[in-house]
Amino acid sequence: MAKRTKSDPYVPTPADRFTFGLWTVGNPGRDPFGGPTRPTMTPAEIVYTLGEAGGVYGVNFHDNDLIPIDATDAEAAQIKKDFRKALRETKIKVPMATTNLFSDPVFKDGAFTSNDAEVRAYAIQKTMNAMELGADFGAKTYVFWGGREGTESDATKDPTIAVKRFREAINFLCKYNIDRKFGYKFAFEAKPNEPRGHMYFSVTGSYLALIPTLDHPDMCGVNPEFAHESMAGLNFVHHVAQALEAGKLFHIDLNDQEFGRYDQDFRFGSVSYKAAFFLCKLLTDYKYKGPKHFDSHAYRQSDRKDVIEFARGSMRSWKILEGKVEKFNKDRKIQSLLKKINRGNAKLENLTKKFSKANAKALLEANLDRVKLAKKSLPYEELDQLVFDLIMGVR
């Protein structure tokens, strides 16, 4: 295991709170057009692989990543025993758990939003059991990704009823969380499309709108994923900022993505250098303390050794960008330009911060010359080039 030194300050430690999923490092290289290119690993083997990578804080799982859906009681007991042993020996934790409500044919038309009441009940039952499993290993964040919650044709479902059904399921599970004293925080993960033609709750803001309508909104937040908003051509940093400002950023999925493509789940920082930098800056500047989860997987060409390099590279990229953020925040020229661009006016800001009749009267009487205001310089090109120079390592 590499150690952090003055000459290489980018080596991760568990204090960085980097996590991976069993389904990420354990991905065998399968895709829709071809079978696996590397051997399938058991959950325990995945944990040991992460241990070899070094510096990993945690490993997360769907219920069926750990226990196959058709496992016998004896098989499940052995898997959990081996997994627990691997966690103990590597000192890796389980911060987050979730339910697979998308792979099995029973969920072909959704889980919580299925048109079939028995399927909806089964989805809630499966989630209850998965919550028990996650709690057994110490997970405190529970993620909900509605992989099949959507439609290909609006003739097949009423979207208003679908949202109502989703809300009812979450309200039930919130109360189950309280009743069983699990202490979970629920985090919802949005995606614009795939595997459904159209997904309900397609962007992070969709869930931020839903949360206040729930019975226990304080228990619920979001888990934005870099690839999901990016694949639709949206600015992921802005969506994370909205969640952060609302106090609802409970978890985050880091990876990378080319615009307009399928959900590629590339290694974090491997494609979108600038977006990755500003995401790192946002979370660093606002002191995000939650896990940083790499929901990605190695290239299909990788063998086990290269999978370990994938894990190391994911963490190293974040650490390098953290260093760039520190340089940005200390760069005199950059900070001088930011000071010039961000022009405060305490008198006017006090007027507009909170409405009163007096403030409204004073604002109406304020001398605000639009022509003069329009002539003020905004050196954005200069600033953006300085950011590019910094990221590229020439500043």
Per DSSP E runs of 2 or more residues, the count of β-strands stands at 10
Radius of gyration: 23 Å
**Number of folding domains?**
2
| The CATH homology group name of the largest domain | Divalent-metal-dependent TIM barrel enzymes
Number of helices: 16
Question: Reading side by side through the largest sheet, how are the strands ordered?
Answer: 8-6-4-3-2-1-10-9
Q: Distance N terminus to C terminus? A: 31 Å
**Major β-sheet, in short?**
8 strands, parallel
Sheet-strand content, in percent, reads: 5-15%
- What structural category do the secondary elements indicate? alpha/beta
Query: What percent of residues adopt helix (DSSP H or I)?
Result: 40-55%
Low-confidence stretches: none
The CATH architecture of the largest domain would be: Alpha-Beta Barrel
